[in-house]
TrEMBL record:
PROSITE patterns: MDH (PS00068). This is Malate dehydrogenase. The gene is mdh. It comes from Paraoerskovia marina. Substrate binds at residues 92, 98, 131, 162. NAD(+) binds at residues 11-17, 105, 112, 129-131. The lineage of its organism: Bacteria, Bacillati, Actinomycetota, Actinomycetes, Micrococcales. SUPFAM superfamilies: LDH C-terminal domain-like, NAD(P)-binding Rossmann-fold domains.
């Protein structure tokens, strides 16, 4: 059969890690015919818990899981990695300024980028989940000069999936009948979920968007602030849906997006749609199983333009902040 794919997961003992690892090991991410080796990276305080999760993974007797190793050293954990899921990050603490947050995460994502550069497989595919995901991905990519920038991505698939669900609910159709929504910009409150190009059970998404009060006062903020709403309701942050989105992202990258549809991902900007070049920005994208490509030729109206530009500008600001800190 196929040789195993080495998947490195950081923050493996966290909430998202716990929801993610079992799905990877069961074959839901890379396909039911692809064996997987798992490398779990944690900080020293997290190693014992990661070892406990590794015991549970053993106890699932997943036929596709060929081995699990737990590390507290990034070089060792990324050695030979084909897929790297960067989940562990420094959350924003009370009273923490943005610069402090970026600096704390620079201390994580700079050495991880260097470790990926040093030892990951030539075909490595990196997904950054840990926030601020786009800029953490920019830091990692910038510190891996020998790895093509196209190998680094930031997760906006959860925002994309949230947008699909909200559109389906509004239109009273199945989520399976909604295609071609888009997330533009930063995985932050400034993100712009775009329905203007969507196909909603055969009808144009622009019809839903004619109700501007729904679009701008309900849909956009509901998608952008969904994480906070879940924390309020559950008492802890979304973990299973974030893990699900990471599985979806890598699945579509490796196996390709369906014909006639697209998804959203934070990728190295080539300047498409007037975005600054060299930020890690979300666009509507397709994958051919190897590389992501931005969906070209979409007409951007004034409502969308203003919001896309604002979110892209926020990413350019974050880039300036990490540049000033010497992280890129
Ligand atoms: P979670 O597993 O809940 O979250 C991990 C990261 O994912 C956070 O940065 C979080 O950002 C982010 N995230 C992105 N999208 C979402 C979403 N939709 N919902 C929730 N989170 C999202 O955090 P835990 O604290 O449970 O676990 C983190 C683990 O990482 C710990 O075990 C810690 O030891 C480890 N860690 C490992 C490092 C390493 O391997 N080098 C470095 C740092 C930490 P946000 O907080 O903004 O929601």
């Amino acid at each position: 059969g196929k040789s195993p794919v080495t998947v490195t997961v950081t923050g493996a003992a966290g909430q998202i890690g716990y929801a993610l690892l079992f799905r990877i090991a069961s074959g839901q991410m890379l396909g039911a015919d692809t064996p997987v080796r798992l490398n779990l990276l944690e900080i020293p305080q997290g190693v014992a818990a990661a070892e406990g999760t590794a015991m549970e993974l053993d106890d699932c007797a997943f036929p596709l899981l060929t081995g699990i190793d737990v590390y507290d050293d990034a070089r060792a954990a990324f050695d030979g990695a084909n897929v790297a899921l960067l989940v562990g990050a420094r959350p924003r603490g009370p009273g923490m300024e943005r610069a402090d947050l970026l600096e704390a995460n620079g201390g994580i994502f700079k050495p991880q980028g260097e470790a990926i550069n040093a030892g990951a497989a030539d075909d490595v595919r990196v997904l950054v989940v840990g926030n601020p995901a786009n800029t953490n991905a920019l830091i990692a990519a910038s510190n891996a000069p020998d790895v093509p920038k196209s190998r680094f991505t930031a997760m906006t698939r959860l925002d994309h999936n949230r947008a699909l669900a909200q559109v389906a609910r509004r239109a009273g159709v199945s989520v399976a009948d909604v295609r071609r929504v888009s997330i533009w910009g930063n995985h932050s409150a400034s993100q712009y979920p775009d329905v203007f190009h969507a196909d909603v059970a055969g009808r144009p998404g622009a019809e839903l968007a004619e109700d501007r009060a729904w679009l701008l006062d309900e849909f956009v903020p509901t998608v952008a602030k969904r994480g906070a709403a879940i924390i309020d309701a559950r008492g802890s942050s979304s973990a299973a849906s974030a893990a699900n989105a990471a599985v979806d992202h890598v699945h579509d990258w490796v196996l390709g997006t369906p014909d006639g549809d697209w998804t959203s991902a934070g990728i190295w900007s080539d300047g498409s749609y007037g975005a600054p070049e060299g930020i890690m920005a979300s666009f509507p994208v397709t994958s051919d199983g190897q590389e992501w490509s931005v969906v070209q030729g979409l007409e951007i109206n004034d409502v969308s333009r203003e919001r896309i530009d604002a979110s892209m500008a926020e990413l350019a600001d974050e880039r300036e902040a990490v540049r000033a800190l010497g992280l890129i």
